[in-house]
Design brief:
- The protein has 385 residues and is mainly beta.
- The protein folds into two domains: 6-232, Acid Proteases (Cathepsin D, subunit A, domain 1, Beta Barrel); 239-383, Beta Barrel (Cathepsin D, subunit A, domain 1).
- It has six helices and 26 strands.
- The protein has helices at residues 46-56, 115-118, 192-198, 214-217, 282-289, 361-364; strands at residues 6-17, 32-39, 70-75, 80-87, 92-99, 105-108, 132-141, 152-162, 174-177, 206-210, 222-226, 239-242, 245-246, 249-258, 261-271, 278-279, 296-298, 302-306, 316-321, 324-329, 334-337, 344-347, 349-350, 357-359, 367-372, 378-383.
- The strands form three sheets. Strands 1, 2, 3, 4, 5, 6, 7, 8, 9, 10, 11, 12, 25 and 26 form a 14-stranded mixed β-sheet that branches.
- It is globular and about 60 Å long.
Length: 385
C-alpha cells in the first residue's frame, strides 16, 4: 500500500547493493533475486491504508472508516511486501517497499528524530565510506548479467530528515522506486534500473516479480528478481504488453470480464506493486460487483463482498491485455473482514480511478510480472504456477 509521507530529503550518492547471492538454477534466466518472507506479527489498519490510497491517487474516492536473492516479507493480509537491501560500505541493512508506481529511492537518515523515523532503521552516512553528499533538497508526498555476487550500483538516493506520522505504521523503512526517471522527484536523477543497466550489472534489463498470497502460498517464497526471469514461477508463456507511456508502468487494458463474460470496460492502467488493491473506474467496479451476490458499495467502506466468497476459486475477474486474459479468482476479492459482525469483507476491487486503472497486488499475486525496460518497454505477464 502506498504510504502517505511528507518527507524532506537530502540527496546522497552511495553504493547500493542487493542482498544474499544465490546459485544459478536452471529455471532462472540470469538475474539477482530478492526473496520475500512473511511477517505474521505486523498489526495493520485496512481502513487507514485505504485513506492513504485515496491521497496517493486523488480520484479513487474509496471511503474509509547475476543472481542475488533478496527475501520479501508479506505483511498480513497481503497488505504490502518488502525486502532488505544492503546500503553503503560497510553495509547497513534497510527494509524497503519495492514500488513500480514510483521512481525515488529513499529511507530515513540517522539525523531524523521524528516519531516515525525512530520506528525504522536509519542510514548513518557518517559510518559509510562510500557515501558522498549531493546537497540537493526536496520534499516528496505520496498522495496516499548473472554472477555469483549481488548487484552493486552507485546510486543517488534520498535521506529523509523528517517523516509524517502516517509513515510510522509501515514496517518498511523506505521506498525503492522501480518506475521510469520521468517521475523522479528531482530532475536528472537516474533510477536504480537506469544505473544498473548502464553499469552492465544486469544480464537482462528486467525486474521480475512474484508476490505470494497467504491463500495460495501462506505468504512464503516471494521474490524480486533483478536481471532475470524465474520460469518456475509461472505457467504457459509470458505475454508482453507494451508500455504506452513511461513514468508509471502504463499499459492498455482492453477489457474487463467476469468468469469468461466481457463487461465491456476498458482503460489505460498501470501495474503497481506498491498498491495493495485493484482500483478501477466506477463503471467497471460496478459491473464486476453486479455479478457477486451480496456485494454492496458501502458509504463507509467502499465496495464490500460477503466474506464467504473467499471459498470461491471457480469464478473470477479477468483483464484482457495484448490478446490474453489474466485472472483474479473471486476468492481474492474477499480481502479482509470488516470485523463488524456483518460477515462482509473489504473487496479487493474498488472504484474511483476513472482515468487510469491500477492493477495492484491483488492482481500481481495471481500473475507473474516481468517489467522489461528495453528500448520498447513492456510488461510480461503469465499466470502463476
Amino acid at each position: 500500500m502506498k504510504i502517505i509521507a511528507l518527507v524532506t530529503l537530502a540527496a546522497a550518492v552511495l553504493a547500493f547493493t542487493s542482498a544474499s547471492p544465490i546459485a544459478r538454477r536452471p529455471h532462472l534466466e540470469g538475474g539477482h533475486s530478492v526473496p520475500l518472507t512473511r511477517n505474521p506479527h505486523f498489526k495493520h489498519n485496512t481502513r487507514a491504508q485505504m485513506v492513504k490510497l485515496n491521497k496517493r491517487y486523488p480520484g479513487v474516492n474509496i471511503l474509509a472508516g547475476s543472481s542475488g536473492k533478496v527475501p520479501l516479507t508479506d505483511v498480513s493480509p497481503d497488505l504490502e511486501y518488502y525486502g532488505t537491501v544492503a546500503v553503503g560500505t560497510p553495509a547497513q541493512n534497510i527494509k524497503v517497499d519495492f514500488d513500480t508506481g514510483s521512481s525515488d529511492i529513499w529511507f530515513p537518515s540517522s539525523t531524523c528524530t521524528t516519531t516515525a523515523c525512530n520506528k525504522h532503521n536509519r542510514f548513518n552516512s557518517a559510518s559509510s565510506s562510500t557515501y558522498q553528499k549531493d546537497g540537493r533538497k526536496w520534499s516528496i508526498s505520496y498522495g496516499d548479467g548473472s554472477t555469483a555476487s549481488g548487484i552493486k550500483v552507485r546510486q543517488t538516493i534520498g535521506l529523509a530528515t523528517a517523516e509524517s506520522s502516517q509513515f510510522g505504521s509501515s514496517p518498511a523503512d523506505g521506498l525503492f522506486g522501480l518506475g521510469f526517471d520521468t517521475i523522479e522527484s528531482v530532475s536528472g536523477v537516474k533510477t536504480f534500473l537506469d544505473n544498473a543497466m548502464a553499469a552492465g550489472a544486469l544480464a537482462q534489463p528486467v525486474v521480475s516479480v512474484f508476490l505470494p498470497s497467504e491463500r495460495r502460498f501462506n505468504g512464503h517464497g516471494g521474490e524480486y528478481l533483478f536481471g532475470g526471469i524465474n520460469s518456475s514461477k509461472y505457467t504457459g508463456s509470458l505475454t508482453y504488453v507494451p508500455v504506452t507511456q513511461e513514468g508509471y508502468w502504463q499499459i492498455s487494458i482492453d477489457d474487463a470480464g467476469y468468469s469468461g463474460q466481457s463487461l465491456g470496460q476498458s482503460s489505460q492502467g498501470i501495474v503497481d506493486t506498491g498498491t495493495t488493491l485493484i482500483v478501477l473506474g466506477d463503471d467497471a467496479a460496478q459491473a464486476i460487483h453486479n455479478n457477486i451476490d451480496g456485494a454492496t458499495n458501502d458509504p463507509n467502506n467502499g465496495w464490500v463482498v460477503p466474506c464467504s466468497v473467499a471459498q470461491d476459486t471457480e469464478n473470477y475477474v479477468s483483464f484482457s491485455m495484448s490478446g490474453a486474459d489474466f485472472k483474479v479468482p473471486l476468492a481474492d476479492l474477499a480481502y479482509e473482514d470488516l470485523s463488524d459482525g456483518s460477515g462482509n469483507c473489504f473487496s479487493g476491487v474498488q472504484g474511483g480511478q476513472n482515468d487510469l486503472w491500477i492493477l495492484g497486488d491483488v492482481f500481481i499475486k495471481n500473475n507473474y510480472c516481468v517489467f522489461s525496460q528495453t528500448s520498447s518497454p513492456s510488461i510480461g505477464i503469465a499466470p502463476l504456477a
